[in-house]
Amino acid sequence: MSHLVVVTGGSAGIGRAVLHAAPADAHRVDVSRRGADGPVDEHIAADLADPQGWRTVGSALRRLVGSRSWERVSFVHSAGTLTPIGFAGEVDDEAYIRNVLVNSAATQVLGHLALAALADLDIPREVLMLSSGAARRSRPGWSSYGAAKAGLESWVRTVGDEQRQRGGVRVIAVAPGVVATAMQREIRDTDPASFPGVERFRRLHEAGELADVADVAARLWEVLDDRERFTGGDVLDLREVTGGGR
Ligand SMILES: NC(=O)c1ccc[n+]([C@@H]2O[C@H](COP(=O)([O-])OP(=O)(O)OC[C@H]3O[C@@H](n4cnc5c(N)ncnc54)[C@H](OP(=O)(O)O)[C@@H]3O)[C@@H](O)[C@H]2O)c1
Fold first, then answer.
1. Average pLDDT in the 85-100 region?
2. Does the pLDDT of residue 245 top 50, yes or no?
3. Closest ligand 1 atom, residue 50 Cα
4. Which of 109, 122, 130, 185 is found 20 to 30 A from 231 (Cα to Cα)?
5. How far is the CA of 16 from the centre of ligand 1 (A)?
6. Pick from 97-111, 123-137, 232-246: least confident
7. Where are the beta strands (DSSP E) in 19-80?
8. Domain boundaries defined on the chain
9. In this structure, which residue's CA is closest to atom 36 in ligand 1?
10. Is the omega angle on the peptide bond into residue 192 within 30 degrees of 0, that is, cis?
11. E strand or H helix at 106, and its extent?
């Protein structure tokens, strides 16, 4: 089986674990600034806060898709950032702009570029994007992050409908729960003035209730592999669809 797996944010956290958990014979490609360790076949260096980085990823996707006769292609968009945590109108302007570019703009543009690269293939193809519970509830201190995840879910619903009409790529959004990664460390280290909800995350950590990143990656692959149940346009909470986790 020749399976192309491209993961943004493959250098750390959930994206890195998704690459590690990919089928043994997959061709694994990471998109990030730092680059992934471990079993990765290719690294695409891109800063997703820079539109030039999006173009780099689009060209790389077209080259990769055309480089072999694949039997399946999976594009997982895991790159994301909470920085700067703090109230809108109070945080640093440049950091806020980068947050919007990485979380909102890059997500939509990379989704579009992935679909364009995959358009002419007649094989199983899927785009899975990491969402968050913050898409659906107010979390003061995370305004641009939450708005981006709400936008991501809207994009997946609409594009899922489009791809059912023509295209045939399965497009799925998954909120993974509270997962033990660097992003959670950043949350716990934030002062309550910038993020009033911090105590809940500190308590979950102290109680050992964060989901294990390898377990989350395995369950994301369950979603990717289940073509009968998740046909595209699905907006999922991983804790509800595969059990386990927080
Ligand atoms: N962890 C959780 O509890 C949790 C909960 C809900 C949703 N999520 C979502 O799950 C996804 C993964 O989160 P995580 O916890 O694994 O985060 P993480 O450990 O902080 O890793 C973030 C990844 O995103 C990449 N990234 C960040 N900014 C980038 C940029 N400007 N250009 C390119 N790549 C960039 C990083 O790569 P480089 O630094 O090497 O560029 C890194 O690989 C995110 O979309 C997040 O919103 C996580």
1. 98
2. no
3. 31
4. 109
5. 10
6. 232-246
7. 27-32, 42-45, 72-77
8. 3-177+213-239
9. 9
10. no
11. helix 106-118
Rounded to the nearest angstrom, the distance between the alpha carbon of 32 and the centre of ligand 1 is 9
Residue 93 has which token pair?
């302007």
- Residues with Cβ within 8 Å of 104's Cβ and at least 6 positions away in sequence, in order, are 144, 147, 148, 151, 152
For 55, phi then psi, to 5°, come to -65, -40
| Nearest CA-CA partner of 113 in 67, 70, 164, 51 | 51
Averaged pLDDT score across all residues of the chain = 96
Q: What pLDDT, on a 0 to 100 scale, did the predictor assign at position 246? A: 42
Q: How far apart are CA 30 and CA 10, in angstroms?
A: 5
Gap from CA of 13 to ligand 1 centroid (Å): 7
Fold of 3-177+213-239: Rossmann fold (3.40.50)
Could you tell me the maximum CA-CA distance found in the chain, to the nearest angstrom?
Answer: 53
Nearest residue (CA) to ligand 1, atom 34: 32
Q: 28-36, long-range: CB within 8 Å, 24+ apart, which pairs?
A: 29/4, 29/5, 29/60, 29/64, 31/6, 31/7, 31/57, 31/60, 31/79, 32/8, 32/79, 35/11, 36/10, 36/11
pLDDT, residue 38, reads 77
Ligand 1 neighbour 49 (Cβ under 6 A): yes
Give the residue carrying structure tokens 């939509």: 108
Q: What CA–CA distance (Å, rounded) separates 228 from 230?
A: 6
Which pLDDT tens digit goes with each residue over 154-199? 999 999 999 999 999 999 999 999 999 999 999 999 999 999 999 9
Q: Measure the CA angle with vertex 222, ends 216 and 225; round to 5°.
A: 140
Residue nearest to atom 8 of ligand 1 (CA): 132
Q: Is 156 in the pocket of ligand 1 (CB under 6 A)?
A: no
Sequence length of the chain is 246
